[in-house]
Write a structure and sequence with these properties.
This protein is of the alpha/beta class and 469 residues long. The chain has a single domain, classed as Rossmann fold. The protein has helices at 35-41, 53-57, 69-84, 102-112, 138-151, 159-167, 171-178, 183-187, 207-212, 231-237, 250-263, 268-278, 288-320, 358-361, 377-396, 444-454, 461-468; strands at 8-14, 44-48, 90-100, 122-126, 220-226, 329-334, 412-416, 423-432, 437-440. Strands 1, 2, 3, 4, 5, 6, 7, 8 and 9 form a nine-stranded mixed beta sheet that branches. Strand 3, helix 4 and strand 4 form a beta-alpha-beta unit. The longest helix has 33 residues, at 288-320. 49% of the residues are buried. GO terms for molecular function: acetylcholinesterase activity. It comes from Euroglyphus maynei. One of its GO terms (cellular component) is extracellular space.
């Protein structure tokens, strides 16, 4: 490295895969090829492999398997980058972490974890955040660990004995038992995944409690999600919603709600409340498309959309309470649907589903070496402009105006209320589609429904409104 050369911003990518599968070498490294972003950004791009399944997230409630080992791998990689990246031309004082799905959820934990203090300066979260639904609780983590130990024919009445037993298994045995091709069970929280309340100090308390206490690392943030996040997963759980020849009734919808909420380990009381909330404005005889949309929206909101939305909202409000804060928070919703998404069993009526935006968001569509046939001109255009946006954010902490010259506003913004001209807080998001546009308070009411379940503590919108009066 020439000591006189200018150091470049660093972008560190953490891939998704439900904490159970994929790697940085997926499909000959094409999926997570950082060279496209590096070329446009003039950045140093690092992709990180971390432990998965039981290797990465086994939790016994003891130090022998403290939980979240995979996230500790990520933090260790950031320590290495801080100490060594300058030798590769990267600036250790300008590090952006970037992740999708499991990677995004892991980044949310690092934003509020004391263990990641000072290791990065900006973050891009795409589709996923840690939250306080039962799937991420220590109780659920311990239950899934015991289920795994039982499948491995190890004693589960004593955690030390179980760990001793697991350590005597071969790598092949452990991998075979921990790998998952049953993707819906990951989203249902029935696999060993990330958690709060671990014993390794990553998230010692509930996430919303930590934010309430002002425990966080000040960074600039972009957080967003796709419009139809769990469309494909919903169809896997209740495939009958794909039946175009059947007319669904309210009784059918109640039955499907019960089935999908039971799969997600939700209590029956929540099922009833969610059904009443999401159907409260439906017409007397809604179409099949409306029924489908409501079920997909409900599951998407509870598992992916509102965790991401509420984390960004709570984080923005927490930053705002610090008078000397200079960090910014931005948000988006990815609405662009492309025919290649059909390969993921994601249909147009669903909107872009979970992870179907990855080829566009990480640059594969901008430079499709292997899959040029799959992408349309709009895909390539949006992909190129998003890479330019991520690059500008990594350099300056702002998205810039690369999306057809449209200014991307901060998530928490001030507007004048019509009538009395008072200043109120609104939540603005960039809609990534053609044409691009800005939406205001698009998911606010629906995510407020989920707030007591996902992020029950910490600052809320009502407090912010009262501060502005």
């Amino acid at each position: 490295m020439n000591r006189n050369a200018r150091l470049k911003p660093v972008i560190v990518y953490f891939f998704g895969g439900g904490f159970h599968f994929l790697s940085i070498n997926a499909i000959r490294t094409q999926v997570f090829d950082g060279s496209h972003l590096a070329d446009i950004c003039d950045c140093t791009v690092v992709t990180v492999q971390y432990r998965l399944g039981a290797f990465g997230f086994l939790f016994t409630g003891t130090e022998r398997a403290p939980g979240n080992q995979g996230v500790h791998d990520m933090i260790l990689s950031l320590h290495w980058i801080k100490e060594n990246i300058e030798r590769f031309g990267g600036d250790p004082r300008n590090v952006t972490v970037f992740g999708q799905s499991a990677g995004s959820m892991s980044i949310s934990t690092m934003i509020i974890s004391p263990l990641a203090k000072g290791l990065f300066h900006r973050a891009i979260m795409r589709s996923g955040s840690i939250n306080e639904f039962i799937a991420y609780s220590p109780e659920n983590a311990l239950k899934k660990t015991k289920d795994f130990g039982k499948r491995m024919k190890c004693p589960i009445h004593d955690m030390d004995l179980m760990v001793d037993c697991l350590q005597n298994k071969t790598v092949e045995e452990l991998t075979f038992k921990t790998i998952s091709i049953n993707i819906p069970r990951i989203f249902e929280g029935r696999k060993i995944i990330i958690m709060y309340g671990d014993k390794g100090g990553l998230l010692p308390e509930r996430p919303s409690k930590m934010l309430e206490k002002g425990i966080y690392n000040p960074v600039d943030l972009i957080a967003g999600y796709t419009y139809g996040e769990l469309g494909t997963i919903t169809a896997f759980i209740i495939p009958e919603i794909l039946n175009d020849f059947r007319k669904f009734t309210y009784d059918d919808m109640k039955r499907l709600y019960i089935k999908v909420f039971k799969a997600a380990q939700a209590p029956s009381k929540l099922t009833r409340h969610a059904f009443n909330f999401y159907t409260r404005n439906l017409p007397e005889n809604p179409s099949n498309l409306v029924f489908r949309r409501v079920i997909v929206d409900t599951l998407s909101d509870g598992i992916m959309i509102c965790p991401t939305y509420l984390f960004a909202q709570k984080y923005a409000l927490t930053l705002a309470k610090n008078a000397s804060n200079t960090n910014r928070v931005y948000s988006y919703r990815f609405d662009h649907f492309s025919p290649y998404m059909l390969l993921f069993l994601c249909f147009p009526w669903m909107g872009p589903c979970h992870a179907t935006d990855v080829p566009i968001g990480f640059g594969l569509a901008a430079h499709p070496d292997l899959f040029s046939f799959a992408f349309k001109p709009k895909d390539k255009k949006i992909s190129t402009q998003l890479l330019q946006t991520w690059a500008n954010f990594a350099k300056y902490g702002r998205p810039g105006t690369y999306l057809d010259d449209l200014e991307w506003p901060e998530f928490r913004s001030a507007d004048k209320r019509v009538g009395d001209n008072k200043t109120i807080t609104v939540w603005k998001q960039m809609i990534i589609n053609q044409p691009y546009r800005i939406t205001i308070n698009a998911n606010l009411d629906r995510c407020k429904f989920w707030e007591p379940i996902l992020f029950p503590y910490g600052p809320d919108l009502d407090d912010d409104e009262n501060d502005k009066q």
